[in-house]
């Protein structure tokens, strides 16, 4: 399943928080970094399942966060709920 949200945090901070969250906050579903780049992170967990997270800086400010997983849906949803929301654009 693919999950998406927007946050006021910078992309690097989102990825750092994801590393900590999946290693420390969900012990029964822990996942650890396997591969990463400046705007993405792949975590590997129980049974070889993975969580892929990408961050995209938006021109109007804020960061779009996209996460994909087959097994960690509840943990991903919980992680995304910990991120501060981005300010809504006024038109």
Plain-language structure description:
- The protein is of the alpha+beta class.
- The chain has one domain: Kinase associated domain 1, KA1 (TATA-Binding Protein), CATH 3.30.310.
- It is built from 2 helices and 5 strands, in the order βαββββα.
- The protein has helices spanning about 10-25, 75-80; strands spanning about 1-5, 30-35, 40-45, 50-55, 65-70.
- The chain has a 5-stranded antiparallel β-sheet, with helices on one face.
- β4 (about 50-55) and β5 (about 65-70) form a beta hairpin.
- The radius of gyration is 13 Å and the shape is globular.
Structure summary:
This protein is α+β, with helices and mostly antiparallel strands. It has helices at residues 11-25, 73-81, and strands at 2-7, 31-37, 40-45, 50-57, 63-69. It has one domain: Kinase associated domain 1, KA1 (TATA-Binding Protein).
């Amino acid at each position: 399943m693919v999950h998406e949200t927007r946050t006021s945090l910078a992309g690097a901070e989102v990825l750092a928080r994801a590393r900590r969250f999946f290693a420390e906050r969900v012990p029964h579903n822990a996942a650890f970094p396997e591969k990463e780049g400046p705007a993405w992170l792949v975590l590997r967990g129980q049974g070889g399942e993975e969580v892929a997270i990408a961050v995209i800086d938006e021109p109007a400010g804020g960061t779009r966060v996209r996460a994909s997983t087959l097994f960690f849906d509840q943990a991903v949803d919980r992680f995304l709920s910990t991120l501060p929301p981005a300010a809504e654009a006024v038109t």
